[in-house]
Amino acid sequence: MTYQKLIKNQLKQLGRVPEPGLDAIAHSEKLNQHLLDLASKNNNSLTFSLFMENCLYAPGLGYYSAGAEKIGESGDFITAPEISPLFSEALAAQIAQVLEECKKQQPANILEFGAGRGVMAVDILSRLQQMDCLPETYYILEVSADLKQTQQNTIKQLLPQLSSRVKWISTLPEHGFNGVMLANEVVDAMPVTVFKKEQGQFKSKDIVLNEGQWQWQINQKLDQKLQQWGEKLEQRLGYSLPEGYESEVNQLQSPWLEALSDNLQKGMILLVDYGFPEKEYYHPQRPGTLMCHYRHFSHSDPLVLLGLQDITAHVDFTALAETVFQQGLQVAGYTDQGTFLTNCGILERMELLGGIDDEKIARHSQQIKLLILPTEMGELFKVIAFTKNLDSVNLLGFIKGDRRSRL
What we know:
Elements: H1 3-14, H2 22-40, E1 45-47, H3 48-57, H4 80-83, H5 85-102, E2 109-113, H6 119-130, E3 138-141, H7 145-158, E4 166-169, E5 177-184, E6 193-198, E7 201-210, E8 213-218, H8 224-237, E9 246-249, H9 253-263, E10 264-276, H10 278-281, E11 291-294, E12 297-299, E13 310-312, E14 315-316, H11 317-326, E15 330-336, H12 337-343, H13 346-354, H14 358-372, E16 381-388
């Protein structure tokens, strides 16, 4: 079977979704060969974490490393900053509160992880300029060379007067950080370990090649680290998960967050993502959260359309909170996106910008509904804040509706 026919069969199984062009199929075939080469070094199998990492980030081949449009109407999904600048302006209100406090001792900065097309950076900086609360530097740490170029173009075109304040870095600042670290839909794109409970043991689900197609296979060799994690999870839940239960765990987020916590001298880490507290995430009736996004079509099969689709998993916010707590930071707030944006004045800002223009008011109103309504992004997306040396600051975004007790 040719690779082109393989892709067509995959599309047929998914349903009525757009067919990729010949260049995209050829690109996918190159990534597939790259995965085959990796698997050949390990008995023709890959851990799912390694498989997902390469599908998303393999240099020049992965979904986020290649040049295809990803975000927006012509891409595969849309993010909150792309829906409305009011999202970023609401974040700017929270950021300004922290920057003002951090500036009392030394210059304060912003560090954004995975900045998409750069739209959020533009809108945050524009609003902070209006508030007379600009950071000394707006750092962007971006792993995708393609997206970095897009971000640079966006900022030069839309915010030329502040472009000199934006700097791209590949590692955390060497001498510690004072200010706000920001990540919107970053943790969900980290590679995860997929597991299944069999005979009381937590076993990883790996990826193997069978007759030219990638398939799942239970790794019968016990992973002690995964087993210990599973046993501790059940202790915290207060019950044993059922036989055959499947889900995933992000084993990379803790080292990442530990590095951020160590690097932060004073300020806030603000994360926006979709997910749940631990007890909701690992509910017996929730069999995993892996999702893929291709041309605004969502499905749950990460083994198809290699390099052409986004692969994500929801975030366990309890695990994030435990990591930073152990690092000595304060879990300063946790709530749903709708409540956070409302607390930060998004409705008042909408009224101010809309003025008496009915058409503008209607457009802003429709955008706001997508961002804050529970049936849209308002409930599934959560916002969590961790602070260091900011004990006296009552964060604006969590004044009402704080859900830390649910963590």
